[in-house]
Write a structure and sequence with these properties.
The structure holds two protein chains of two kinds.
Chain A lengths: L2 E3 L4 E5 L4 E3 L2 E3 L5 E7 L6 E5 L10 E2 L10 E3 L8 E8 L7 E2 L3 E6 L1
Parallel strand pairs in A: 2-11
Antiparallel strand pairs in A: 1-4, 3-8, 5-6, 5-9, 7-8, 9-10, 9-11
Chain B lengths: L3 E4 L2 E4 L5 E7 L5 E7 L5 E8 L2 E5 L6 E7 L2 E6 L8 E8 L3 H4 L2 E2 L3 E5 L1
Parallel strand pairs in B: 2-11
Antiparallel strand pairs in B: 1-3, 3-8, 4-5, 4-9, 5-6, 7-8, 9-10, 9-11
The chains are: A mainly beta, B mainly beta.
């Protein structure tokens, strides 16, 4: 079974502080992992996927298979980063994404 | 020029009514999905269609019936609406399998049952 755990419901940081949104997964095969962002009352947007190893809006995420984690990081938070962040998993060749419960990021000025 | 569009954006209706939500994508994707986002913001898959064929049907009451007239459209019909059906319903599409490139989501339909 595929499972995604985001242990923090809410993460509150000050502007300019580093951010780390935690994501752990459970999957016996080789996972495909994603981060999605949802700004207030808007659609979910793909932020990044592990296979592309890119940096979007200053965010990065590294897949750690030993710790089964895919934490999202940003060195300096900005107020416009305030949003709901979802980690999602698909199995290899899988036909669906399984989402974590989401973490609300609040960046305070 | 919206990639995945849903209508209506808001839907307020009384218990017991029947309603439909429509979804269309112009990305040429093969697979479309319906997700339910509940009041706690948890996202759960309901259905998935690949080239008009149902491939995922999670544990959803049979009051919910998806229909895909072609691969660019996936509609959701709900019979005998209940208070617990109140949620935001998101349509999404993907090219190939979900794990290849992820999803493109619609803007959601906020359903309120009173």
């Amino acid at each position: 079974a595929q499972r995604v755990t985001q242990p923090e419901k809410l993460l509150s940081v000050f502007k300019g502080a580093p951010v780390e949104l935690k994501c752990n997964y459970s999957y016996s095969g080789s996972p495909e992992l994603f981060w999605y962002v949802q700004y207030s009352r808007q659609r979910l947007q793909l932020l990044l996927r592990h296979i592309s190893r890119e940096s979007i809006k200053g965010f990065t995420a590294d897949l750690n298979k030993g710790e089964t984690s895919f934490h999202l990081k940003k060195p300096f938070a900005q107020e416009e980063d305030s949003a709901m962040y979802y980690c999602a998993l698909s199995g290899t060749g899988g036909n669906k994404l399984v989402f974590g419960a989401g973490t609300i990021l609040r960046v305070k000025s | 020029d919206t990639a995945v569009s849903q209508t209506p954006k808001y839907l307020v209706t009384q218990m017991g009514n029947d309603k439909s939500i429509k979804c269309e994508q112009n990305l040429g994707h093969d697979t479309m999905y319906w997700y339910k986002q509940d009041s706690k913001k948890f996202l759960k898959i309901m259905f998935s269609y690949n080239n008009k064929e149902l491939i995922i049907n999670e544990t959803v009451p049979n009051r919910f019936s998806p229909k895909s007239p072609d691969k660019a459209h996936l509609n959701l019909h709900i019979n005998s609406l209940e208070l617990g059906d109140s949620a935001v319903y998101f349509c999404a599409s993907s090219h190939g399998t979900a794990g290849d490139y992820g999803y493109t989501f619609g803007s959601g339909t906020r359903l309120t049952v009173v």
